Amino acid sequence: MAVSSQYNRGLHWWSVLLAFCTLLLVVAGGLVTSRDAGLSVPDWPLSYGKLMPPMEGGILYEHGHRMVATTVGILTIVSMIWLLRTDDRRWMRRLGVVALIAVIVQGVLGGITVLMLLPWWVSTSHACLAQLFFSTTVAIVLFTSPWWRRGPVPIEENPKFPIRTQSLAAPVAVLCQLALGAAARHKAIGVIYHICGSPIVTGVVLWISLRIVLHYAQNRELRLGALALVGITCTQVFLGIAAYMTRIAYADAVQPMPLMVAFTVLHVAVGALTMAASVALAILVRRNIPAAAAGFSHARAVAIS
Amino acid sequence: MKPLLCTLPLLLLAACGSGTQPQTQTQAALPAAHVDPATAGAISGRILFKGAPPAMPVIDMSSNPQCERQHHAPVKAEIVVVNPNGTLRNVFVRIKDGLAPARWTPPAESAKLDQQGCIYVPHVQGIMEDQQLEIINTDPVNHNVHAECQVNQAWNESQPPRAEHKFKTFSAEEVLFPVTCSVHPWMRAYIGVSPHPFFAVTGDDGTFTLRGVPPGAYTIEAIHEKYGKQEGKLTLAPSGAATIDFTYGS
After folding, report:
1. pLDDT digits (tens, 9 = 90+) for A28-53
2. Are A48 and B158 within 8 A, CB to CB?
3. A48 to B146: CB separation less than 8 angstroms, yes or no
4. What are the phi and psi torsion angles at B63 (to 5°)?
5. Which label site among A12, A110, A149, B91 has the fewest CB atoms less than 10 Å from its CB?
6. Which element (helix H / strand E) includes A111?
7. Which domain does A276 fall in, by range?
8. Do A96 and A204 reside in the same domain of the chain?
């Protein structure tokens, strides 16, 4: 395999597979917590001293999560080697290494939280890094895609409605909200903080997205990215309400109820998609509205005025 | 960066071993307890339940058919069990205050916690500090046993079918902490660790009796997993009998 600046179809579809499996991993992790199965396998890295324990009760979820995680780890290793050997972009090769380091740290955090009986700070870190890792895999999909290789479609920043820096607010706000949700799930804080954060994050996302739709709609990438983020966020808000309502409805249940588990896990998975969509939109904004163009635009606006 | 990388594993190891280690030195320094049988009395009572008993949900064991097959009738949760005589089962009752500071010897016989039909038996029990708890798995399935202690050292261990019994001790007073199984999330038992032998758990008649209690003024505490704690005071005369009832309700 030679280093190339051309679109690599195999690498791109491998990255898509990695991102898809990572989303499955997030779902599997959400199932472990929602099914109260986090400690059903007390040992790590083996499970009941074996590579393959009987998949019964909570073991199915905990060991299943470990199996998906192992698959994602292998996919990430291959992805890194592929990038190192074929991609001409130094930053892209570095991103491949960062992704591998992240998935290793994530695995170790998962092991530590089992061995330490789920301390909230380890479990919350594990949940947050999962979201960040998924966003990284989605970013790799973007960077290896054919249209990324074709180059940006530049658009000048409207000085009255700047977006280049502001677009970073959405992923930061979503990450904070995900951290609050993870902390609530692992009983570090009350769920009220996550609920209170919801309108703020939704407001930030709508503000960014509407600004793009209203003032940068001529750029197809930005327009579609903004609309996708709005759609995913609205779905996420609905799932959050549904997850909360089912938790209240089943407050006296002696075991996790299927409807509550379904809505909560979907909320976790769509949370990961929200994070990834906000990261992707910020990447698209910064790619299509370059800093130099923004500077030029601003200078021209000042000169005209 | 290198010192940080070297320090991180050490910090993690330190964190792994930083569970609460109960202080047993204070207890060891106390004089050995002595009760004069000639003056010892008994404290007894009932735990009454007022109002309509809440309906307990049926446990869904379908996630593990081997658990389900061991029961011929639906199994209900044991959170609130009201006896036919209107009393409440599974309430842990103990002398909370009033005993002279002393070191009580735990019984040589171990307390038992069995996993039968993917249910913990008994649901609530008391043991003395440093008394052995024998954990048995009579089920044909894997369990994990997680003692969710806050004062004593918490632990979580697997127990495969037909595995050797586990023996555990708890060296500090702790009332009550849950024991759970994450393989079967409906499984939950409660254990109260007492420094003295004056405790009981109400059964199918809702009564309790604490025997061999030295005369004195005591605070009696009742603890239920759902309805919480209640306290009452009484005075026990030499060779006397005192009674105290508690009433819970929904």
Report:
1. 999 999 999 999 999 999 999 999 99
2. yes
3. no
4. -70, -15
5. A149
6. helix A90-115
7. 155-305
8. no
Task: Say if B250 is an interface residue toward chain A (CB within 8 Å).
Answer: no
B55 touches chain A (CB under 8 A): no
The CATH number assigned to the domain holding A173 equals: 1.20.120
Q: Which amino acid is at A20?
A: F
Interface predicted TM-score (ipTM) of this complex, two decimals: 0.86
Residue with tokens 């798995």: B137
* Residue A153: its H or E element: none
Q: CA quadruple A260, A266, A272, A274: dihedral positive or negative?
A: negative
CA B226 to CA A252: how far, in whole Å?
10
Per run of 10 residues, the mean pLDDT along chain B (length 250 residues) is: 42 40 61 93 98 94 93 96 97 97 95 97 98 97 96 96 94 96 97 98 97 97 97 97 94
Distance from CA of A46 to the nearest CA of B (A): 12
User: How close B104 comes to chain A (CA, Å)?
Assistant: 32
CB-CB contact of A76 with A103 (8 Å): yes
Which residues from B are below 8 Å from A256, CB to CB? 185
* A13/A143 same-domain check: yes
DSSP-assigned beta bridge partners for residue B49: B248
CA A94, chain centre distance (Å):
19
Domain boundary among A151, A172, A205: A151
Question: CB-based contact (8 Å) between B74 and chain A?
Answer: no
Which token pair is A73? 């780890």
Three-point CA angle B199, B201, B206, nearest 5°: 125
Last residue of a domain, which of A129, A151, A173? A151
Nearest to A57 among B64, B146, B160 (CB): B64
Contact between B223 and B246 under an 8 Å Cβ cutoff? The reply is no
How many domains does chain A fold into? Answer: 2
Are the beta carbons of B159 and B137 closer than 8 angstroms?
Answer: yes
Residues of B in contact with A116 (CB under 8 A): 15-16
